């Protein structure tokens, strides 16, 4: 097997040479284990948190040990009664080509007519995050004015579409022109955050949503949060999904200058971690999967080729190098 390890915990944006590709011979398969040839690897912003060396809601990566992450692959050997050779499965043994792991955390893909890598994106953890943040945390209802940051990303692009499907007016913040164009094609009012300070971004959001904001789906933090706070309606709800703007910060970043808007607008702000809500996953799949299969909900992918591209794919997330879900495709 070939797998990535970290040689040290990074400060700031991780340097490329902190990621080391290692080759090892796998031991014989033990009882209850499976061996999987990975076909798709997921890289996600939350992995930066696992590189900090500190336990957050998930254990840090261990220096010199195989890194982990979502992956889709084919079972090539099994000593577990539930899984057999040829099964296509979802599991956490990513950042490597061949994974060998206990069968418990390995799930066969549901029988739905979608490409298998959709289970790392729109029908997987990011999709479930969008659905949970919007419905469970922000209690989004028809007619709400909704704002989403990092709106053309894996989570954001489903959040905006789910809100549109509810009959909401939706504003999406993104960087590059082609991302804004995609958002517009989805019926979303696109707003660029580039070359704008928090006040200017607030003005742009106001133009795009003159009746204010009832729901803010927060993926970015920083100026986006400050701009969103400036446009809140009374009783607004903010689902804090992520704050990618600060993931590479070397010092704690200052809070928004206008946090008092929460008081003025009697607004609610709540963070969440999707794994705590996984009991809703069947409900999510039942609602969202048919719409994805029928093309009513669309998604995009940015695909890098080959295991060696995994660190670059991960690092590109912090530079807006992806539209939709960032994936690594491994050759068979
Ligand atoms: P994305 O596909 O959205 O990729 C990240 C995107 O964020 C980039 O493409 C870029 O888009 C944007 N971005 C990066 N840096 C900045 C910045 N400094 N300012 C503004 N925008 C920036 O990733 P995901 O959909 O996987 O994740 C989105 C968010 O959701 C992240 O914050 C992540 O941590 C969070 N998350 C939280 C979960 C939870 O359980 N709470 C679970 C999964 C994800 P652009 O070109 O528009 O700048």
Automatic annotation (TrEMBL):
PANTHER family to which the protein is assigned, alphabetical: PROSTAGLANDIN REDUCTASE, PROSTAGLANDIN REDUCTASE 1
> Which Gene3D superfamilies has this protein been placed in?
Medium-chain alcohol dehydrogenases, catalytic domain (3.90.180.10), NAD(P)-binding Rossmann-like Domain (3.40.50.720)
In its UniProt entry, what is this protein called? NADP-dependent oxidoreductase
Recorded superkingdom? Bacteria
Q: Name one GO molecular function term.
A: oxidoreductase activity, acting on the CH-CH group of donors, NAD or NADP as acceptor
- SUPFAM superfamilies per the record? GroES-like (SSF50129), NAD(P)-binding Rossmann-fold domains (SSF51735)
Q: Which residues form the Enoyl reductase (ER) domain?
A: 15-328
| Keywords carried by this UniProt record | Oxidoreductase
């Amino acid at each position: 097997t070939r797998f990535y390890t970290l040689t040290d915990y990074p400060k700031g944006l991780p340097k490329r040479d902190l990621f080391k590709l290692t080759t090892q011979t796998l031991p014989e398969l033990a009882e209850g284990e499976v061996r999987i040839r990975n076909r798709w690897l997921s890289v996600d912003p939350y992995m930066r948190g696992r590189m900090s060396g500190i336990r957050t809601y998930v254990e840090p990566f261990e220096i010199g040990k195989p890194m982990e992450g979502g992956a889709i692959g084919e079972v090539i050997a099994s000593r577990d009664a539930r899984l057999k050779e040829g099964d296509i499965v979802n599991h956490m043994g990513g950042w490597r080509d061949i994974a060998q792991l206990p069968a418990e955390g390995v799930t066969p893909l549901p029988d739905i007519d979608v490409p298998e890598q959709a289970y790392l994106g729109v029908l997987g953890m990011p999709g479930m995050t969008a659905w949970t943040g919007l419905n469970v945390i922000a209690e989004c209802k028809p007619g709400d004015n909704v704002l989403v940051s990092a709106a053309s990303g894996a989570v954001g692009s489903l959040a905006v579409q789910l809100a549109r499907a509810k009959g909401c007016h939706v504003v999406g913040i993104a960087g590059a022109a082609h991302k804004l164009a995609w958002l517009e094609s989805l019926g979303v009012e696109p707003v660029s955050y580039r070359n704008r300070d928090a006040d200017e971004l607030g003005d742009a959001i106001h133009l795009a949503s003159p009746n204010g904001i009832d729901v803010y789906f927060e993926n970015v933090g920083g100026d986006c949060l400050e701009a969103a706070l400036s446009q809140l309606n009374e009783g607004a709800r903010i689902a804090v999904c992520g704050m990618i703007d600060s993931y590479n910060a070397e010092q704690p970043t200052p809070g928004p200058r206008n946090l008092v808007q929460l008081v003025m607008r009697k607004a609610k702000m709540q963070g969440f971690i999707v794994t705590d809500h996984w009991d809703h996953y069947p409900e999510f799949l039942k609602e969202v999967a048919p719409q994805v299969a029928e093309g009513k909900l669309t998604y995009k992918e940015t695909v890098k080729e080959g295991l060696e591209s995994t660190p670059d794919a991960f690092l590109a997330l912090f530079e807006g190098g992806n539209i939709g879900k960032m994936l690594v495709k491994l050759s068979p």
